[in-house]
Amino acid sequence: MRLFNFIKKSKACALLFLAVAAVLSMSPATHAVDVPDFRLQVSPTRNNIGNLEPGQTYEGTFKVQNTGKNDFKYNLTVAPYTVQGQNYDPDYSKNTEYTEITDWIVLSEEKGGVEVNGVDEIKYKIQVPSDAPGGSQSAAILVSLDEENASESTGVQTVRQAAYLIYANISGDTRSTGQVLENKIPSILFAPPVIATSVVENTGNIYTRAEYLLEVKSFFGGKVAYTNADNKDGQTIFPNTERYHEVAWEDAPQIGLFKVKQTIKIFDQVSEVEKVVFICPIWFLIIIIAVIGVVIFWIVSRIFKRRTA
Amino acid sequence: MSKTTKALAIMGVVAGLGVAALPMSSYAATDTASFGVQVTLDDYISVESATAEDAYVTITGVTNNGGIGTGTNDITVKTNNKSGYYLQISAAETDLKNTTAGEASTIPAGKPQQGTSAWGYKAAADGVTNVTIETAAADYAAVGTTPTTIATGAKETSDDGDKITLTFGATASASQAQGTYQGQVTVTATSGEAPSA
């Protein structure tokens, strides 16, 4: 009561309280993202060129952007780009017959500097030799922050780097062959999403895009519950590699019975798998098992009673 | 001047200013023109150093016969690519070299353990969703010359980005020569491939 009277009497306190409340209520909306001392940004992050002819010269550009608080210097290097494993982890250390393009790329500059909020447009030229072999070629332009090591203590300098990927198919003696190694749909799920998985292999010598179509229909009635037909998944598959892929129906219900079909296409190879999928939460499964148990117990006890009677 | 007169005068001034302001809004041109606005954004990927000191990680607490000395470094990755990103680590030369004049000793890359000389790294991403720290990077591992994926982002990052904490650890055997040991690693961010690109 005393406090109430005090606030009532003190208009200044009341105004101060209102001001603080207003500021506190505003703060979530005015959340600012911290700007770091240095931020190296590359955009776009890749160039899927498509076809190039032997003897052709191709010119491309990308941007190195400074969105940090300080000016920075950077270095550019051209490196071979291959992938490791079915998850396609990048590898910039291995030269193969598909990374000869590394020697065909000429950069407009090999180092530079960007001011705060500045942008450098990096120009590169790909000079395809007239005797270039037909097939896929891929490389990366690596942009690294040039930060000096002024420390005299035991430790490790960490160089930050971002990659810009380039790939093209060179016309000539090319092979377009591939196969679908796996096409899997689960039968029972305890919770959504419904995820269909697959592994495809490119046995040719040009890269291509594999397409993944997922269609879900209700088991009773056959009404389409989900399809990505209008926006099919697609992924680049490089020669002599296998790639894992997942297509998901994220908004699947918690419970239901569906017919799920996954169709995968690489070159002219098509794989189609259809399965009945039962989405059943674990608690529902326990109830079903309990009900079945009770029914069995009831039947057995009746039989036992009849025999004893 | 009475209070009533004062009040009337103030109201008069306010009303006058209001009337003066009216034409600006009420006599605006009534012709309308429509035009389209388009903004095109490419995908991007960025890596950052929160502070200039982040470029060098000092490993403290390394003593002969002792436990693991450590130093940490945060790498923040941002991308608007729907397929996320790969964050990898590699080194052109994997040993830490003694920079003391006349010394040629090294601490080799490996899993640091008391009683041996080795240095390695591990990664963590506390409080960040949609990031997978690869099994190989969950505990101390040696840095190799081939890029090793330490973290993958499954989708585009938030405005704050994904902060991956790298911890470097080193141990020194009984016979490890005194000196300052230094090395260099490269941390590379590569965007994923948007499924419908």
Low-confidence stretches of chain B: 19-27
Helix and strand composition category of chain B: alpha+beta
**SSE order of chain A, as H and E?**
HHEEEEEEEEEEEEEEEEEEEEH
Number of strands of chain B: 11
Helices of chain B, by number, come to 2
The low-confidence parts of chain A are 20-25
Distance between the termini of chain B: 77 Å
Query: What is the ordering of alpha helices and beta strands of chain B?
Result: HEEEEEEEEHEEE
Q: What is the approximate shape of chain A?
A: elongated
**Proportion of residues in helical segments of chain B:** 10-25%
Number of discrete helical segments of chain A: 3
* Main sheet overview of chain A: 6 strands, mixed
Secondary-structure-based class of chain A equals alpha+beta
What Rg of chain B, in angstroms, do the CA atoms define? Answer: 30 Å
Q: How many β-strand runs of chain A?
A: 20
Largest sheet: spatial strand order of chain B: 6-5-11-4-9-8
Cα distance spanning the termini of chain A: 79 Å
Binned strand content of chain A? over 45%
Q: Helix content range of the residues of chain A, please?
A: 10-25%
Q: What do the pLDDT scores of chain B average to?
A: 85
Q: What would the keywords be for this entry?
A:
heterodimer, A: 309 residues, alpha+beta, six-stranded mixed sheet, five-stranded mixed sheet, 3 helices, elongated, B: 197 residues, six-stranded antiparallel sheet, four-stranded antiparallel sheet, 2 helices
Summarize the structure.
The complex is a heterodimer of chains A (309) and B (197). Chain A is of the alpha+beta class and 309 residues long.
